[in-house]
Design a protein that fits this description.
The complex is a heterodimer of chains A (312) and B (251). By secondary structure, chain A is mostly helical. Chain A is built from 13 helices and two strands, in the order ααααββααααααααα. Chain B has 251 residues and is α/β, with parallel strands linked by helices. The chains are: A mainly alpha (312), B alpha/beta (251).
Chain lengths: 312, 251
């Protein structure tokens, strides 16, 4: 029965994938548009959706905090500043170091936010969100500073900040897909330990988990796949928050199922959001990050209110 | 057989001494109760034993080895800990929670086996809570929840089981049940039990060793029937009216 449900989810994903190939600003559908423009773009939506959702699941599990996602934690902003830095030193987008730089910046931002929030060995939910906001605000200011210094590359960076699925190099897409796939596979392999983390870090210690080691591993996986997503599509917010919650309602909190469900759900979510983004004001289009934020921010508010009740 | 030997344990937190020269020895299948007012260092001491707090000075030998010499998973095979109240925002089922106690026996890539599941059912049954196995942990009462986390600790198959105020929010029925169960496990499996509690009456029924703390200092350690008298309790809790205390607790 479990396998059936998984197959149904995959089928729905395939359905959306297929449908969205035929949705776009032009109704003239030829081979070129279908295979050279739409297909890579939908692929991109799948990869970015998977990556951000699974990163969200990992953060929510490790930190026992249902309000986390890579956008809120500052991971995305870290990756963004990495991309800006790359522009600043004229690093080619196709070079290997481009990824390394983005990934390192993403991980660093995450670790700084985490350590800011840590007090007396405890990390409170609210502190973590505040720390993420602080990091994001600071890094955004840096990005804007760079924008005012280098006006000629401004447009490029503004698109990165808004987050959208634009044309990317196919080679890049393949590299990123492989990395995201590996990240998700590794997080599936370590999902049993993630279950234990979601009872709290102290409980994980009592159950014999080397928490310091695992925390670094999980943060690295989450930051790396976030960095992958950001490097091809900029910062798209709230995917990592909305999708894991929906998935948890459907399959429960056990992380093996949750990671799979979130990967599929995240793909569907972003495919649909992007279909809206490119048709709503056709023939021009709006960045998909705006759609996800419009949907995600009220969702975040709802979560906050619900959690407040739970704490009482 | 000696299972814990603690000598000259000090613990400082931000320069303030929280524990001052604590030392005790207990044997296999002992039932030790740690008593003292709030802020006396009970939880700090338990967290040192649970390796949440690092041992700063003194020596602590657990089951014949220095506490620091254990790997995380090794330690979890002989030592389990039930915190005062457990909360998780995620709706795991009782069975999922209990089975997590098998984690120290698995390598990182291994998943729970059928035997682990059977073991979980066995423990739940022996605790007479198998009817809860499919329930969502967050739908249980605090007493039932506490029992589930005790089940999780027991499935670790520990030599030492530590509980920090396990009965503080519970009514008398659950209190009796939990203590009765722990005592049964102690006799059957020779598990050493350590409990920090304010329920002086209840622990005096079961404990054979007692450790009294006040402001981080050890007021008494020894046999429970010697230690749990009105004088000692009054000294530990800084109460002046000895006669009332002895009437209250029938000591």
């Amino acid at each position: 029965m479990k396998i059936n449900r998984f197959l149904i989810a995959l089928f729905i994903l395939a359905l959306f994938f297929g449908l969205s190939l035929f949705i776009g600003p032009t109704s003239l559908i030829g081979f070129d548009i279908l295979f050279h423009i739409r297909l890579p773009r939908v692929m991109q939506a799948v990869i970015v959706g998977c990556a951000l959702s699974v990163a969200g699941v990992i953060f929510q599990g490790v930190l026992k905090n249902p309000l986390c996602d890579p956008y809120i934690m500052g991971t995305s902003s870290g990756a963004l500043i990495g991309a800006v830095l790359a522009q600043f030193i004229n690093l080619n987008q196709n070079s290997f170091f481009f990824y390394i730089l983005i990934a390192v910046c993403a991980l660093t931002a995450t670790l700084i936010a985490y350590n800011l929030a840590k007090y007396k060995k405890q990390v409170s939910n609210v502190d973590l969100i505040l720390a993420g906001v602080i990091i994001s605000a600071f890094l955004s200011a840096l990005v804007l500073l760079f924008l005012s210094l280098r006006r000629e590359s401004a447009l490029n960076i503004v698109f990165f900040m808004m987050g959208g699925l634009y044309e990317t190099d196919k080679g890049l897409l393949i590299v990123v897909s492989v990395l995201v796939f590996l990240g998700i596979a590794l997080s599936l392999a370590l999902s049993r330990q993630l279950d234990i983390f979601s009872l709290g870090e102290e409980k994980a210690v009592h159950l014999g988990i080397n928490t310091e080691k695992y925390k670094i591993i999980y943060f690295t996986i989450a930051s790396l796949i976030t960095a992958c997503a950001v490097s091809i599509s900029g910062t798209i917010g709230f995917v990592g928050l909305v999708v894991p919650h929906m998935a948890r309602m459907l399959v429960g909190p056990s992380h093996f199922k949750l990671i799979l469900a979130s990967a599929i759900g995240g793909s569907i979510f972003l495919i649909v959001a992007d279909a809206f983004a490119r048709t709503i004001i056709a023939p021009s289009e709006i960045p998909v990050g705006i759609i996800t934020a419009l949907a995600g921010a009220p969702f975040f508010l709802w979560l906050l209110l619900r959690n407040r009740e739970k704490v009482k | 057989m000696e299972i814990i030997r603690a000598e000259n344990i000090d613990f400082k937190y931000n320069g303030a001494k929280v524990l001052d020269n604590i030392g005790f020895k207990i044997n296999e299948a002992d039932f030790l109760t740690i008593l003292g007012p709030n802020g006396s260092g009970k939880s700090t001491l338990l967290k040192i034993l649970a390796r949440i707090n690092k041992l700063q000075s003194g020596s602590l030998i657990i089951n014949g080895r220095y506490i620091r010499s254990y790997e995380s998973y090794e330690y979890a095979k002989i030592f389990s800990y039930v915190p005062p109240d457990m909360h998780t925002p995620y709706d795991f089922s009782v069975l999922e929670i209990v089975i997590m106690g098998r984690a120290p026996y698995l390598r990182w890539w291994e998943d729970y086996e059928k035997e682990d599941k059977l073991l979980a059912y066995e423990i739940l049954e022996s605790m007479r809570i198998n009817h809860l196995s499919k329930r969502n942990i967050n739908s249980l009462s605090s007493g039932e929840k506490q029992l589930v986390f005790i089940a999780q600790a027991l499935i670790q198959n520990p030599r030492i089981l530590v509980l920090d105020e396990p009965t503080s929010h519970l009514d008398i029925k659950y209190k009796m049940e939990i203590f009765g169960l722990l005592n049964e496990m102690r006799k059957k499996k020779k598990i050493t039990i350590i409990i920090a509690s304010h329920d002086i009456n209840l622990v005096s029924l079961y404990a054979n060793k007692a450790l009294l703390l006040n402001k981080g200092k050890q007021m008494f350690f020894g046999r429970a029937e010697e230690g749990l008298n009105a004088d000692n309790i009054c000294r530990a809790y800084e109460i002046s009216d000895v006669s009332k205390i002895s009437a209250m607790f029938k000591l």
